[in-house]
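Aim 2, interim progress. The first record below pairs a target sequence with its structure tokens.
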Amino acid sequence: MPKKARLNRVAEDSVNYFRNGLYCSEAILKAFNQHYKLGLPDEFLKIATGFGAGLGASKCCCGSITGGVMVLSLVHGRSQEEDPETDAFDAVAELHKRFKKEFKASCCKVLTRPVEWGSPEHHEFCEKYVLRAAEITDEILKARKKLKAKKSKSRVEPADKNKEV
């Protein structure tokens, strides 16, 4: 029997925080804040609360996605209006596209249709969304970090061996 692949730690912790009572958006932001050392004090994690249960329990955009959006924006977003938004927009669009391709929806109401909203089964059912959104977010961050390192490495010009010192 093949071994089951070990979950990555940030995704595993996201699911554990969700199981222990945080909303999907809160769980993802908290786990990434710890693993990626994003520097948010616990007080700032409150920002994720309103995104839970599909934007304030409106059953709209899945909180697992919005949790990932907050993480990607913290890492790739801008802090000045003259800064480009393209890195953040591209990263977030990739998260949305990959999640929607896999689950055929990004709306809580659609994603949770097979279970009764608010039931214990509902919470358990959503674990797969928390897990996958965290995995995708982590994959995007790692891929972009590698790409950035590769780009900066290619910008370094080789030393001229014939040049006198």
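The second target in this work package is listed in the same format:
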Amino acid sequence: MDCTIDRPMKLFILFSFGGGLYTIVELLFRQSSHWSMFILGGICFLLIGGINSVFTDMPLAAQMGISAVIITVLEFLCGCVVNLLLGWQVWNYEALPLNLFGQVCLYFSLAWYFLSFVGIVTDDFLRTKLFYEPAKKYTLIRRKPAQIEDKQ
């Protein structure tokens, strides 16, 4: 029996899981969330998972760094739309130091770096257990260099 799931369904499942996870994190830390954060979380989760799927040899620390940048950029863009353009006031970081228009700040960008570890590992776990993809192997900093034989 073939238990494969087609690509659109995989993406929908991962998007939904990521959106739910993002919403839960917000509820734990802020005691509130907004439906737009579910969408933002789903998109971020798909992109974070895509890094490891495309760049299979990338060290975990680099994946986390790229993930933090992706989340920060998307949070800024989303904030510009939902907070500044539409005026929904979903969040406001103006009181925090090193913020950009009150939509992103260095403190949360650093938090996203460490929280992205959870996203990366969770994406890989879901892909392995639900979609029967091969398990990923992680290195924190870099891969061992290839052995070069000395030909003389």
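The mean pLDDT is 90. This observation will shape the mutagenesis plan for the next reporting period.
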